[in-house]
């Protein structure tokens, strides 16, 4: 992807990220089963669960129900500085279904777009797969494949039902930072390649100092710090377009950054940070194949029906100890295995993400060269080797209306310019204020998650 804007948080009276633990609502994680596979039809079910990110939760004084964060501003008494904020504020347990529109059933997770509740309305969610009550599940993707089913039929222009991996700490930083009492159990520790600065707490401290409330969103803002790490976007999609994108960082692991030196969508200088915010992406529509993916039987992959998405992380040795050489994609629909479309753009060939593909894409689409500058596929390989946390989310885009995914972007370029046309949505589509009214009932479901050896997680009937 070329842009990822601030994820929209709940419009509850208080939504923030914090480190202490509240006692008003018990934290009960929705269960979610998934499978590990060693060969075709040889899979074992794992009893997992999901946790919602702390940015969506009610944050209040450790001594009372006084909000630490209201609307898009901090309480100056509770949060006079970053360290005090972490000590004074508690993150509360979540009512997943009634407040956030998150439900699970067996292997299926559903995330609703707009959920009305007693405090107003919640918009979308970001969740993580848990290994146990206090630890995120981590995946070693090299030499393996990851498969899931997804229903995007109810995701119109401007929405993004995303499944991806980031190099978060497995315990959410619980063991490393003194003032972090919440950890993974309460969804703490998010980072990605945009080095997000909308996070309310980072590395056991608040992000209240130099906080600037958003001028366009009543719930978000940008703080003086950000949190960077490598990101592997398996799936960013709605019913119109999808993209698979690798985002390496020059440093491995989660890294805090300062102000505009963070780079990414949240900063004045996009390429100032340690991560590649653009990444090397594969979007068939952007590569000239406009009939591969979309709603209806005229498309090769019909988004009116459930889709099985298979992603393989091929190494140079063919083993889990090799170096990443290609990211391959297959689909399974109605019993048919469908290979990812080949590029139809002159100068870019193939249907896999490889070093040669990324170099060609950057050249033809006149990219900034950040993928190579941040270490390219080899640095992405190093991040994958260390293990990554699974993220599942539904969000809208206050920064760019998701045009970078499903329309013409940037909007000051013509659609005929290579790389600009990314989907069939209008450039006037995707405005959050509009779609929250018109498409409030939208949702995404993810199900049947499987992880294992190459060619072990999918079959054609």
TrEMBL record:
As given in the record, the signal peptide range reads 1-18
Q: Which InterPro entries match?
A: ConA-like_dom_sf (IPR013320), Glyco_hydro_7 (IPR001722), Glyco_hydro_7_sf (IPR037019)
> Domain of life, per the record?
Eukaryota
Q: Which Gene3D superfamilies match?
A: Glycoside hydrolase, family 7, domain
Question: What does the UniProt keyword field contain?
Answer: Carbohydrate metabolism, Cellulose degradation, Glycosidase, Hydrolase, Polysaccharide degradation, Signal
What GO MF annotations does this protein's record show? Answer: cellulose 1,4-beta-cellobiosidase activity
One Gene Ontology BP term is: cellulose catabolic process
The EC class name is: hydrolase
Question: Which Enzyme Commission number(s) are listed?
Answer: 3.2.1.-
The catalysed reaction is: Hydrolysis of (1->4)-beta-D-glucosidic linkages in cellulose and cellotetraose, releasing cellobiose from the non-reducing ends of the chains
The Swiss-Prot or TrEMBL record describes its family as follows: Belongs to the glycosyl hydrolase 7 (cellulase C) family.
Q: Which PANTHER family match?
A: 1,4-BETA-D-GLUCAN CELLOBIOHYDROLASE B, GLYCOSIDE HYDROLASE FAMILY 7 PROTEIN
Q: What is this protein called?
A: Glucanase
Naturally occurring in which organism (per UniProt): Talaromyces atroroseus
Cite the source lineage.
Answer: Eukaryota, Fungi, Dikarya, Ascomycota, Pezizomycotina
